[in-house]
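Checklist before submission:
- one chain only
- standard amino acids only
- sequence pasted in full

Submission:
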Amino acid sequence: FVATLAEREHSMVLFECGATLAGAMLNRALVDELIIYVAPRLIGSSGRSLLDLQEIDRMSELVELSINDVRQIGPDIRISAGRD
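Returned file contents:
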């Protein structure tokens, strides 16, 4: 899929997805930027994780991000973060 996009010279792709696909894309270093929305609501311990990422054994395996932009949109917070 990614190779086909590159062949067609697509440089930007927007994925609106759940934790599994987002985590898989991050685990394969296919994501340059995350746009995360945080709502002022708590759903408890039964809620889904934001990202389904692979387990790490060392701190050196962390996915490092830089916060590029934070803004409030209504009651929600929009965070733009990119890979270092």
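Reviewer check: Residues 19-27 form the longest helix (9 residues).
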